[in-house]
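Predict the 3D structure for this chain.
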Amino acid sequence: QGTLVESGGGLVQAGGSLRLSCAASGIDFKINTMSWYRQAPGNERELVARITSGGSRNYAESVKGRFTISRDNAKSALHLQMNSLKPEDTAVYYCNAATYYSTYWGQGTQVSVSS
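Done. Predicted structure below.
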């Protein structure tokens, strides 16, 4: 059974930075497409960034140029570097691991950006 644990969330002022991490266990990390999603109160969960097993990345338009997703297959870890944070980035951020036969979610980490 796969487990994902996020860390690194917190409260930051607008313009600041945070680095989120996701530690995976119980899965073959290197074959999974790894993603970050977020959900703000009253909104649907949305994709923020994704990185495939081959290293291809894609980002939501709202975070392009500000956020960077990366993975460390040797450590089964996923990261999200978030720079130039805005109040509208406030949300719970979730780590997701997916293959064609399985998907796992973390419990989420809160990111709050004050204006």
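The chain is about 0% helix and 55% strand.
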